[in-house]
Amino acid sequence: MVNSNLEGFYKKNFNARQKEIIKKAGLSSKEAKMLKNSGSLDSGLLDKMIENTIGIFELPLGIANYFKINGKDYLIPMAIEESSVVAAASNGARMARETGGFKTKSSKPLMIGQIQLVNVKNAAKTKKLIQKNSGKLLKLANLQDKTLVKFGGGAKKIEIRNIGAKMLVVHLIVDVRDAMGANAINTMCEVLAPEIEKLTGEKTRLRIISNLAVHRLAEAKAKWKQKTLGKDVIKGIIEAYNFAKNDPFRATTHNKGIMNGVAALTIATGNDFRAIEAGAHAFASLKGKYKPLTKFYKDKKGDLIGEIVLPVQFGLVGGTTKIHPKAQLCLKILKVKNAQELGEVAAALGLAQNFAALRALASEGIQKGHMKLHAKNIAMMAGAKNKEIEKVSKKLVNSGQISFDMAKRILKELRGK
Ligand code: NAD
């Protein structure tokens, strides 16, 4: 049994930590070699990124093609482990290209910082005092990030919410420009909290960014022709949308499909995918019931229109985006000029992803196409190596029964020969 009490583990250097884990976990020399291969991230960088680092964990990087957004073509990098996702996004974009591709727009990159006031004795008086001094508080917040201010961003507004239970919450609205904004906002909130305490005589507690980025939204819209899709498929897509609109069980999976695309782009660009996921799902339930992030309807000609709105807390600077060499490489492929444009690309990608999934679901089902692409994974799972993978997956597809059992049987036969 492994003893997890690794005293002083965090103090060790990268190589020493690797060594210790290799020994403790009984890794083979082949496994140790694999662990030591850290790709584009050297040990010095890895050691600074997270704690107790021992290596990297790779994901496949794919390119979604055919995307035209506001008249400009994009090659979208996607880091994801799930087969079919990149193919589906490209397919959705290819079909939207017939009508000019995606039209997008977005709001300013405004994020929210929250300062919690607890056991508030006089809510009305406290609110008034904060409102009266909001200019002074904004000035103080902006002293914390002169770079942000230099680029036209910074703290812009203060709002106060009474959330009951003797609690007030101060919202600090900050234009974070090309950053995701968490560090900038957290610093500002921590500096403002004692000032608010002095000003009001009330007690503050939490001071942190909110990932429900309702002021930082991106929208995308596209049209798919009836001539291309057929009347029945359009009907099926709208029925699928209505299903999601009326049932949170379906809406969750509907939105998961959207996030297949959005999260893959988030990871490829070194952004915080937990923030983007949390924000998207909370936004989906903002009106009290969990809803789909997209909507689909027919226009007068009977063509299908798809729309999406979602919060987009992406950055091009800060966090890992600037220091991860692969994130930089992906951004070079993507060619966006600012974080707002990245958010709009994410919205278009999410819409394409969702359209492609609903089209498949509403017609032949997703398993046929998906399992064809997944056959190689199943072949590998069954133990196929090198050239066997292609052979087993081909036989699996031809057999019409793409299952683990079948893959094992085919592999056994192949090796028997
Ligand atoms: P950051 O602090 O690393 O960098 C942002 C800073 O870069 C800005 O504040 C500004 O001073 C500077 N900057 C330079 N050029 C800029 C430009 N063109 N536009 C805007 N700013 C510019 O990063 P961040 O975006 O404040 O924070 C992101 C990180 O915080 C992520 O790693 C995220 O995972 C982490 N985080 C997230 C949460 C959360 O989401 N709840 C909480 C804590 C930390």
What Rg do the Cα atoms give? 25 Å
Shape: globular
How helical, in percent, are the residues?
40-55%
Structural class: alpha+beta
Please name the fourth-level CATH homologous superfamily of the largest domain: 3-hydroxy-3-methylglutaryl-coenzyme A Reductase, Chain A, domain 2
CATH class of the largest domain: Alpha Beta
Tell me the CATH topology of the largest domain: 3-hydroxy-3-methylglutaryl-coenzyme A Reductase, Chain A, domain 2
* Main sheet strand line-up: 3-8-10-9
Q: How large is the share of residues in beta strands?
A: 15-25%
Name given to the CATH architecture of the largest domain: Alpha-Beta Complex
Q: How many strands, what sense, and barrel or not for the largest sheet?
A: 4 strands, antiparallel
